[in-house]
Fold Short-chain dehydrogenase/reductase.
Amino acid sequence: MSIAGKVALVTGGGRGLGREHALALAAAGAKVVVNDLGGSNTGEGGDAGPAQSVVAEIEELGGIAIADTRSVADWAGAHAMVDGAIAAFGDIDILVNNAGISRISVFGEMSEQDWDLSAAVNFKGVTATMNAAAAHWRKTGPKKGRAIINTASPAGLHPMPPINIYSATKAAVAALTISAALELAPLGVRANAIAPMARTRMLEGAPPEMIEMMAPREGFDPNSPEHVSQVVLFLASPNCPFTGRVFGTWGDDLYLFNEWSAAHHASNGGQKWTVDALEKASAELPRQDHRWTLFPGGRFEADMPSADVLNALANL
Ligand SMILES: NC(=O)c1ccc[n+]([C@@H]2O[C@H](COP(=O)([O-])OP(=O)(O)OC[C@H]3O[C@@H](n4cnc5c(N)ncnc54)[C@H](O)[C@@H]3O)[C@@H](O)[C@H]2O)c1
């Protein structure tokens, strides 16, 4: 079994990572629905151009694709784009939820619009396309080789200011992916998420040191988005054994995240907790979690919360 002949929907497939995913899937022989609203990085506006131009690129290379310019943030629209893929190509086998926006948001300064737009695209949109595909899969019954690839972010797994809401929506994507893996396995669906790092317009507004780190490099360029698409192809491939996992992907590096883990335990020995008892028992629990965090440039060991955060409280 291979990807050839399978039907794939790539949301946000008109630019950046999604464009690379659509091209890679088409080159592997999939029939691709290239969805893209064509909005701004912060979620405003729309333009049919990006989706249509990727379809034209695929067709020029001899592949099969159609464009869809609906917004994933619209529940009915997201269902219609999945139904459109099924109407055009007879099925949906591979769902790549890639569409996403990023808005600066820090507590005390965020607006309702920051929340509504971010949650609608990054979280509701992913839920809606998965719901639409699952409805079709439930109706048609079990079949091997179905795959969902959702796009989380290193920021979702290590939340960071000043993109608090973005981070939370991406954590939600990881949680949705794990739920889907548990729920949809009997229908032959594997669901995994990626936490990519690549040079796209999403870097607009990033700190200058990050932009510099992601700049093009001579020879092998780890920041080129094409590398992430190979991981998407692998996760879409019927031979891939993984489900319910989150993979960090940057250049030629692949990282596998651990889920939240109930790593430490305290007990009050069958007695009702009191604040005093909790203070005593929790003295044995670490204040910091030592972990691997993923940032452009690779993974780094870090304590969460950092010493700076604990010191800020201690030094008041
Ligand atoms: N570039 C990175 O380093 C990076 C890091 C972590 C996560 N991501 C995630 O990767 C995904 C792709 O981002 P990118 O970096 O390629 O950015 P990008 O802005 O180049 O591409 C995102 C695409 O999604 C489309 N889109 C936005 N809202 C949409 C909607 N409502 N409906 C349909 N399409 C919509 C946009 O028009 C755009 O073409 C996003 O989910 C992003 O959060 C990217």
